[in-house]
Specification:
Blueprint (H helix, E strand, L loop, with lengths): L1 E3 L4 H16 L9 E4 L8 H15 L6 H9 L1 E3 L8 H14 L6 E4 L3 H14 L6 E4 L7 H12 L7 E3 L7 H11 L13 E9 L8 H5 L2 H19 L8 H14 L8 E6 L17 E6 L11 E6 L8 E6 L21 E5 L5 E9 L7 E9 H4 L8 H11 L8 H16 L5 E3 L8 H6 L11
Parallel strand pairs: 1-2, 1-4, 2-3, 4-5, 5-6, 7-10, 8-15
Antiparallel strand pairs: 7-11, 8-9, 9-10, 11-12, 12-13, 13-14
Helix pairs in contact: 1-2, 1-12, 6-13, 9-10, 10-13
Bound molecules: 6-O-phosphono-beta-D-glucopyranose.
Length: 467
C-alpha cells in the first residue's frame, strides 16, 4: 500500500492508527508493506516516518504502539518521496517493498492529498506503470461542482477503470450505517411502513460541536455544503431511501443508491438555510468578509413512488449545541385524535418517531405514546432504545476508515461512491451553487439560524432531544 500524504493530517489522525488497528486485529493480508509518500521537500527518512507513525498511533490510535504487534508493524513501514517528474525515490521504495512481500503483490494507492494534487499523482501512477493492476483510494471532496467532478473522473478513468476506484466517504464505513441496511431489510415489520404511506418526513441531522479547528484554508474554499452535505449526508440519504437491492453485492447495492440520486429534485435555494457562526470571520486565516457557510439546513425531495411528497430535511454545521449523528423518521398521525395529552408531556404532540443514532457505537430508538398511569385516559410520550454499547461488546468494532480500508484491500466496492452518483449529486446541487442564499449568523452553541424552524414547519427538529 502506498499512502500519498503520509505526513498529513488525515494519515496522522485516521489512516496510520487505523492500519495499525487492522494489523493488530489480524485483518491485514499475510504479507504486506506500507510505503509512505509525500513531496521530496521536507520528506522524512524511513526512520523518521516510523517515529511519525508511532506518535500518530500513540495520540490517535485505539491501541498503544508497543509490543511485538507494533514492532512488526513498524518494520513494515518505509518512505519514498515523489514529485511530478521525479518519482524515482518512490519507485525504489515500492520495488524494495514488493521484494520483501514476494510473489506478485497487488498495489493499493491511497490519495490522502488535497484535491489540487489528485490529477498529477494519478498521471504519475499511469506514466510510471505503478498503476498496472492496482487499486486507487481517493479522498473526498470529489470535485467542487459538476464540471470539476467530470474532469476529475476523466483523469482517473484514463488510468484506472471504475472497478479499481474506491472513492472514500468515511460515513459509509460507520457500523450503524450498515445497520440501516440490516434494520430495513432483515426485519419483516420495518420495511412495510418505510414509505410515504406511513412516514411524513425524514431528518438527517449531523450537528457538530467543533468549529473549524484551524482548518481555515480548507474550509474557506469548501464550506459546509461541499464538506458535509453533498458528501456524507447525501450518501446517508441514499441508504435511508433506497429500494431493497436484489443482493448485498456491490453492484446491486450501488445501483439502488444511485437510483435515489437520480430521483432527487434539483435543490431549490428557497428551501436552503445557509449560516455562519458568529466569530467565524475572526478565526485565523478567515477572510473578514467571508461568505463561506459553516452551517446548512435544507429540504430535499425525491420524485419516486416510495417517497413522493415526503420531505427530507438535512442539517449540519460547526459550533452547534451538540455533536450528533441522527436519522429520524417521523410517522404520520393515526386518522383520528381520540385522546387528550397528559399535562406533563408539554406543549405539542410529537408523533411517532424512529431515531437511528449513529454516534459510535450507536443506538436505535422509537418514540411513541402510552397511557399516563392514573384514572384518566391521557397520553404521554414514551421511548424504547436499543443501545449497541449495552447489548454488544463493541470493543472489536472497526472505525469508519478502518472498515473502508479493509474493504478496499478486499476489493469490495459496496460502501464506496461511484462516478455516476457523484456527478448526479453535483448536478442536483447546481441551482444552490449558482445562487446561494446569503449566510445568516448564528450564535455558537445554538442549533443554527432561526430560519431552520420555518424550513421544517409544520414538523420540528428531533434534536435537541426533549428532556
Ligand atoms: C469530515 C469533514 O469529512 O467529516 C469534517 O471534513 C467533519 O469537517 C468530519 O468534522 C466529521 O466526521 P465524524 O465522523 O467525526 O462525524
Amino acid at each position: 500500500m502506498v499512502l500519498f500524504g503520509a505526513t498529513g493530517d488525515l494519515a496522522q489522525r485516521k489512516l496510520l492508527p487505523g492500519l495499525f488497528h487492522l494489523a493488530k486485529a489480524g485483518l491485514l493480508p499475510d504479507r504486506w508493506r506500507i510505503v509512505g509518500s509525500a513531496p521530496a521537500d521536507g520528506a522524512p527518512t524511513d526512520e523518521e516516518f516510523r517515529a511519525h507513525a508511532r506518535d500518530a498511533v500513540a495520540e490517535f490510535g485505539t491501541s498503544k504502539p508497543e509490543g511485538p504487534a507494533w514492532e512488526e508493524f513498524e518494520r513494515s513501514l518505509s518512505f519514498g518521496a515523489a514529485d511530478p517528474g521525479a518519482p524515482e525515490p518512490l519507485l525504489a521504495a515500492v520495488r524494495e517493498a514488493e521484494r520483501a512481500v514476494g510473489g506478485d503483490p497487488r498495489r493499493l494507492f491511497h490519495l490522502a492529498v488535497p484535491p489540487s494534487a489528485f490529477a498529477s499523482v494519478v498521471e504519475m501512477l499511469g506514466a510510471t506503470g505503478l498503476a498496472d493492476g492496482a487499486r486507487l483510494i481517493v479522498e473526498k471532496p470529489f470535485g467542487t461542482d459538476l464540471a470539476s467532478a467530470r474532469a476529475l473522473n476523466a483523469t482517473v478513468h484514463a488510468v484506472f477503470d471504475e472497478s479499481r476506484v474506491f472513492r472514500i466517504d468515511h460515513f459509509l464505513g460507520k457500523e450503524s450505517v450498515d445497520n440501516i441496511l440490516a434494520l430495513r431489510f432483515a426485519n419483516g415489520f420495518i420495511e412495510p411502513v418505510w414509505n410515504r404511506d406511513h412516514i411524513s418526513h425524514v431528518q438527517i441531522d449531523v450537528p457538530e460541536k467543533i468549529g473549524i479547528e484551524g482548518r481555515a484554508h480548507f474550509f474557506e474554499g469548501t464550506g459546509t455544503f461541499r464538506d458535509m452535505i453533498v458528501t456524507h449526508l447525501f450518501q446517508l440519504l441514499g441508504f435511508v431511501a433506497m429500494e431493497p437491492p436484489t443482493t448485498l453485492a456491490a453492484q446491486p447495492l450501488r445501483d439502488e443508491k444511485e437510483k435515489v440520486f437520480q430521483s432527487m429534485r434539483r435543490l431549490d435555494p428557497a428551501h436552503v438555510v445557509r449560516g455562519q457562526y458568529e466569530g467565524y470571520r475572526d478565526e485565523p486565516g478567515v477572510d473578514p468578509h467571508s461568505d463561506t457557510e459553516t452551517f446548512v439546513a435544507l429540504r430535499v425531495e425525491l420524485d419516486n413512488w416510495r417517497w413522493a411528497g415526503v420531505p427530507f430535511f438535512l442539517r449540519s454545521g460547526k459550533s452547534l449545541g451538540q455533536g450528533r449523528h441522527v436519522v429520524t423518521l417521523g410517522f404520520r398521525e393515526p386518522p383520528l385524535r381520540m385522546f387528550p395529552m397528559a399535562a406533563r408531556s408539554g406543549p405539542g404532540i410529537r408523533n411517532n418517531e424512529l431515531v437511528i443514532d449513529f454516534d459510535d457505537p450507536g443506538s436505535i430508538g422509537t418514540r411513541f405514546l402510552v397511557k399516563d398511569p392514573g384514572p384518566a385516559m391521557r397520553l404521554c410520550e414514551a421511548e424504547m432504545v436499543f443501545s449497541y454499547a449495552e447489548s454488544f461488546n463493541t470493543m472489536y468494532a472497526l472505525e469508519g476508515y478502518e472498515r473502508l480500508l479493509l474493504d478496499a484491500m478486499l476489493g469490495d466496492q459496496s460502501l464506496f461512491t461511484r462516478s455516476d452518483g457523484i456527478e448526479r449529486l453535483w448536478e442536483v446541487s447546481a441551482p444552490l451553487l449558482e445562487k446561494p442564499p446569503p449566510v445568516e449568523p448564528y450564535a455558537p452553541g445554538s442549533w443554527g439560524p432561526d430560519a431552520i424552524h420555518r424550513l421544517i414547519a409544520p414538523y420540528r427538529w428531533s434534536l435537541p432531544d426533549r428532556d
